[in-house]
Amino acid sequence: MPKIKFTKSELKSQRDSLKQFQRFLPTLQLKKQQLQLEIRKCGEKMAFVVGGEKKLFGEMEAWFEIFSDTAVSSMLSQVLVIKDVVTSKANIAGLDVSVFESIVFEEAEYNLFTTPPALDDALKFMRKSISFQVEKDIIKKQIELISQELRITSQRVNLFEKIKIPETRENIRIIQIYLGDQDTAGVCRSKMAKKKMQEKAA
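RE: above sequence
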């Protein structure tokens, strides 16, 4: 605990600090709640995406043998090219995070007569699969950033709730007791001096 001065100006300073801490604390607590809510939302989003991915893999299961065909695999590696990952920015309790919007793939150009018939379906499924994977990665990054901010905010809330506010209140109490004792002692000294003057005058 930092050393305090037992003066009226120090008492005012401590009271001002207490008001400041009490004003900031609700804002920090609200931010903490918002971040916790956003992490839950991210978890729900992740569960939704994972569910969609599992459903896709279920649909793809019957096609795995066809997809494993060397000709199909070779063609996929040539025509399956990501052009852009489209994201937007969202502000969550003062924190900027990227939000997945879509993936833009290069237009696949291939000869319909010389390529395996399964290539169209394989291309469609793989684009969906990649889209799910990229969205999961972006949600993971969101969770990571929000969790980091939540840790910092929680530390600040704890600092204010458990250290700064109780410490400042205790400082105010100690200074008030000291100043009160000084006032009492001053009154006693004044009475004794007055009594001595009266005794001398008598």
